[in-house]
């Protein structure tokens, strides 16, 4: 019998939750996802220093203020990493807009368009890119605009059923409901230190969303994300896509037991139709859902913080190179 990772590939599209090229090559996923935290981790690896330096050099050729040069460097670095990933996977890579823009629809749209433009400049068509945007009301509206322009989106930091319904109604290509972070919140607030995988609140959330989409014929892809253990993954076997860290892919690869499919359109349970998600409905629903409100805000802050760390790292490298060049002159 094949290992559980190979069995899972027959049920769900496996996506790598990493920007590390070596790990992606090792586990051969269909797609890959990145975010500011993963890019910051990659940037700290000396193996990728030349990719950052290339981005800095390119940004210098574009001119503009220091702030514009830094912004160009960040965009180019993200695209450079995405480009390298796309050389080793057959599918798509997700590239995220700046978390600081999570409540700015127009700015999110403009940055997404810029990222697509930079990908096109290196020969990557938009059909191989998913633009990641936080599942705020403003982010969902930005995705709605982008989808109509042929730019496909991945709505991330999704913790509530209403967020998921709003994304589907907006015609979003893909959502990334966060399983593990939902589990984290429930452990902290209930005092329970363990949930059986079948009772995991994150698993139950994704299952409900998946069943709803299939029941009402939404095309939006459900991609479970942010896993804490392989049990969560196994309970979602059959979900459209699952984005998995290298560590958990390794655990699945080492497990030779039989994996059972848990989700399928045919098995989708009946769920009452949600009322249309207006802005008022969306904001009230989040207000009433402490977990989703807290984890969404926390996630945005976390990505913004790692974006700032990445900016500092790039500035330090840029200043160092400028100093070295000056010394040579």
Q: pLDDT under 50 segments (min length 5)? A: none
How many structural domains in the coordinates?
1
Mean pLDDT: 94
CATH class: Alpha Beta
Shape designation:
globular
User: How would you spell out the order of helices and strands?
Assistant: HEHEHHHEHEHEHEHHEHEHHH
Largest beta-sheet details: 8 strands, parallel, barrel
Fraction of residues in helices?
55-70%
Terminal Cα separation, in Å? Answer: 64 Å
CATH topology type: TIM Barrel
DSSP strand tally: 8
> Which range does the strand content fall in?
5-15%
* Sheet/helix structural class: alpha/beta
Judging by the overall fold, what is the CATH architecture?
A: Alpha-Beta Barrel
C-alpha Rg (nearest Å) = 20 Å
Please give the order of strands in the largest beta sheet.
Answer: 1-2-3-4-5-6-7-8
CATH superfamily: Aldolase class I
Q: Output the number of helix runs.
A: 14
Descriptive account of the structure:
It is a single chain. This protein has 329 residues and is α/β, with parallel strands linked by helices. The chain has a single domain, classed as TIM Barrel, CATH 3.20.20.70. Helix content is 57%, strand content 11%. The protein contains 14 helices and 8 strands. It has helices at 4-9, 21-27, 36-43, 49-62, 66-86, 105-121, 137-148, 161-169, 179-190, 201-216, 230-235, 246-254, 279-288, 290-328; strands at residues 13-17, 31-33, 93-96, 129-134, 153-158, 174-177, 221-224, 241-244. It has an 8-stranded parallel β-barrel with strand order 1-2-3-4-5-6-7-8, surrounded by 8 helices. Helix 11 (230-235) links the parallel strand 7 and strand 8. Helix 8 (161-169) packs parallel to helix 10 and helix 9 (179-190) crosses helix 10.
């Amino acid at each position: 019998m094949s290992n559980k990772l190979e069995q899972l590939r027959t049920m769900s599209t496996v996506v790598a939750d990493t920007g590390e090229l070596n790990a992606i090559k090792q586990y051969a996923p269909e797609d890959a996802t990145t975010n500011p935290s993963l890019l910051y981790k990659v940037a700290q690896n000396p193996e990728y220093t030349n990719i950052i330096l290339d981005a800095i050099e390119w940004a210098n050729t574009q001119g503009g203020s220091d702030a514009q040069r830094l912004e160009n460097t960040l965009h180019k670095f993200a695209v450079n990493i995405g480009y390298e990933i796309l050389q080793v996977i057959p599918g798509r890579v997700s590239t995220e807009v700046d978390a600081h823009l999570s409540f700015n629809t127009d700015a999110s749209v403009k940055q997404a368009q810029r990222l697509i433009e930079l990908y096109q400049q290196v020969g990557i068509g938009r059909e191989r890119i998913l633009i990641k945007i936080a599942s705020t009301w403003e982010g969902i509206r930005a995705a709605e605009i982008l989808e109509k322009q042929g730019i496909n989106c991945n709505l991330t930091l999704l913790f509530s059923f209403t967020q998921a319904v709003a994304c589907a109604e907006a015609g979003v290509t893909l959502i990334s409901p966060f399983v593990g972070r939902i589990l984290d919140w429930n452990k902290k607030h209930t005092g329970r230190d363990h949930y059986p995988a079948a009772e995991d609140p994150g698993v139950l959330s994704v299952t409900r969303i998946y069943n709803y989409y299939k029941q009402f014929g939404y095309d939006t892809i459900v991609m479970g994300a942010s896993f804490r253990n392989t049990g969560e993954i196994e309970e979602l076997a059959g979900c459209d896509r699952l984005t998995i860290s290298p560590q958990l892919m390794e655990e699945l690869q080492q497990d030779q037991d039989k994996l059972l499919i848990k989700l399928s359109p045919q098995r989708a349970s009946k769920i009452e139709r949600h009322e249309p998600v207006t802005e008022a409905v969306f904001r009230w629903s989040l207000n009433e859902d402490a977990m989703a409100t807290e984890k969404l805000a926390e996630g945005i802050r976390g990505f913004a913080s790692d974006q700032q760390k990445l900016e500092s790292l790039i500035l330090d490298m840029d200043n160092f190179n400028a100093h070295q060049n000056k010394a040579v002159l």
